[in-house]
Amino acid sequence: MGKFWIAILKAVVALIVLNILAGFVYTRFDLTEDQRYTLSQPAVEVAQKFDSPVIIDILLDGNIPAEFSKLKAETVQLMESFASKNSNITYDLVNPLEDEEQAEQTIAELQSLGLKPANVTIEENGKVSNELVFPWAMVNYKDKTVKVPLLKNKQGSTAEERINNSVQQLEYAFADAFTKLSTTDKKSIAVIKGNGELGDIYIADYLSTVREYYNIGAITLDSVASNPQKVLDQLKNFDMALIAKPTEAFTDEEKYVVDQYMVQGGKSIWMIDQVAMEMDSIYAGGGSAFALPRELNLKDLFFKYGVRINPVLVNDLYFTQIVLATGEGNDSQYNPLPWYYYPMVFSRNNHPINTNIEAVRLQFTSPMDVLENDYQKTILLQSSPLSKTDGVPRQISLDMIMTQPDQATYNNGNLPLAVLIEGNFTSMYKNRVKPLKLANAMEEGPANKMIVISDGDIIKNQLRNNRPLELGYDKWTSNFYGNKEFLVNSTNYLLDNTGLINIRNKKVAIPLLDVKKIAEQKTKWQIINIGLPVLLTLVFGLFFGFYRKRKFSA
After folding, report:
1. Contact status, residue 255 vs residue 298, Cβ threshold 8 Å
2. CA-CA distance, 141 to 161, in Å (whole number)?
3. Which domains does the chain show, CATH number per domain?
4. In sequence order, which residues have a C-beta less than 8 Å from that of residue 372 and are 6 or more positions away?
5. How far is CA 135 from the centre of its chain?
6. How far apart are CA 207 and CA 378, in angstroms?
7. How far is residue 341 from each of residues 264, 366, 517, measured CA to CA in Å?
8. How many CB atoms lie within 10 A of CB 149?
């Protein structure tokens, strides 16, 4: 018996020594298959930039549904990972609805800050209840605060998929917030004007979002006619050019200035409507209007980089809805109806730009041909397998809503709608007569990137009382689409030199409990969890009593 107690004493001493050493040497071991507790190097680098306290308030404390408890646990684990890299990072768990008497006022205040709650339906023991949860975190640094959405909800997602999607985006969401708070030397974006592009109020939500990362300015190409060199020099002060739905043709001189900007390293996002058609035209025309090709004088520019936007319309059975009024006066009803020229484009999840984003809504979009050349091209968005093209000119009428589509004709799907182009850019004017003379013009440039999207309205936010709404929100159906996230990701990818956006490709799989099995086997596991320890204790007590009796009676 003496040897046994000596062995126990040695084990206790070793454990105490090990704990003392652990206080001086901190290390963590990630034994998960997907390495979800191992931070990506770009995330580590941005977290280490802080030299003063960063306080993170996680609004997931209190009595919350089971799926959010898992999200809370994963968020806390991630915070501990960040804290292990920089001791200035700390976090608090906050229950925003702890004071039940002030709950309504608190909810209103949180919503006024843009923190939208999740309304969760809980079914337990045959009873159904609704709970409001605020799945958000607030990252506070000095006098600035950034909101971080913890819940990643996508249309049609199950509870398990919703948690997986949410956990998968956590590291990027916090690293992105750290970037917003720590960036001092911002890159810049030029909003191109002068060719009938969308007005600022229609791209206001996109601009206000990216302004957290980048400086924004406007460049008008009208001045190319009088002083092209000055326009190019101004453009070269910007890291990216944004061309949002031009409606007037570019002159050859304007095109050459833009060409030189791109060849000399300027990134660009082109949002192009190759067909002229608007819902407002249909409404104003008594329910119909003609769709016509739009000539922008950009075909040869895009052809040089390996894409061609065709002047036809995509007709897709994976559609979004429009709302029309039926009836008259007080009897009017507003009904959401299918509109096949507004495709609902689900992500291909083949690139950091489009991974784990909500479906994107496009309006009167056109398909693109992706051509073979030396540039690397990635299709970021494409129509559904059940889509086709409709040629123009053609009359577009609201009467099509009342006609059942012939599914057999929708056999030309998976049409490219947004393409990323990467490579060493070559001027489209190489070995050609130049429309004007520019100083230090280049025919071969460094590695560069551009994105071409065959829909100008992808960036257009709706208005209410002449004020911009959130990009991707449809005020008529109250649906949210992934337009803003797609465009912000596109911008960040083009301008990101750290590889931070590649974190979005990180795959995480969270195993969740089967709710149905829990309900069916609840009693069995209660008996096992409560009864088995009691039974084992009794067996051990009887054995120990028998052992003592036999030992001391000898």
Report:
1. yes
2. 32
3. 11-182 (3.40.30), 188-497 (3.40.50)
4. 306
5. 16
6. 25
7. 37, 10, 44
8. 16
Position 131: which residue type?
E
In the prediction, which pLDDT does 101 show? 81
Residue 5: pLDDT band (50, 70, 90) is low
- HEC assignment per residue over 401-435: HHCCCCHHHCCCCCCEEEEEEEEEEECCCCCCCCC
**DSSP H or E run through 320:** strand 319-326
The helix (H) or strand (E) run that includes residue 518 is helix 515-520
- The 10s digit of each residue's pLDDT in 475-499 is 999 999 999 999 999 999 999 877 7
| CA pair distance 50, 36, nearest whole angstrom | 23
Element housing 525 (H / E): helix 522-553
186 close to 208: Cβ distance less than 8 angstroms: no
Rounded-to-integer distance, Cα 309 and Cα 161, Å? 35
Dist CA 115 CA 136 (whole Å): 7
Of 235, 246, 134, 124, which Cα lies nearest the Cα of 190? 235
Q: Per residue in 115-134, is it b (16+ CB within 10 Å) or e — as a string?
A: bebbebeeeeeeeeeeeebb
Q: Please report how the helices 228-235 and 252-263 are oriented relative to each other, as an axis angle in degrees rounded to 10.
A: 30
- Give dist(CA 409, CA 389) in Å, integer: 10
Q: Is the dihedral of CA 345, 350, 351, 355 positive or negative?
A: positive
pLDDT band at residue 66 using 50, 70 and 90 as cut-offs: confident
The residue assigned the tokens 């915070």 is 79
Q: How many CB atoms lie within 10 A of CB 536?
A: 10
Structure tokens at 292: 């016509």
- Helices (DSSP H) in 28-114: which residue ranges? 41-47, 66-85, 103-112
Give the amino acid at 204: A
Give dist(CA 165, CA 153) in Å, integer.
Answer: 8
List C-alpha distances in Å: 478 to 134, 211, 320, 365.
Answer: 19, 26, 12, 22
List, as one string, the DSSP characters of 462-481.
PEETTEEPPTTEETTTTEE-
Tens of pLDDT, residues 323-370:
987 766 666 678 899 999 999 999 988 999 999 899 999 999 999 999
The predicted-structure confidence for 310-336, as pLDDT tens digits, reads as follows 999 999 999 999 998 776 666 667 889
**Which one, of 193, 184, 188, 183, lies nearest residue 238 by Cα?**
188
CA distance readout (Å), 363 to 140, 243, 244, 276, 308:
38, 17, 14, 11, 18
pTM, to two decimals: 0.83
Cα gap 335→325, rounded to integer Å? 6
How many angstroms from the chain centroid is the CA of residue 522? 38
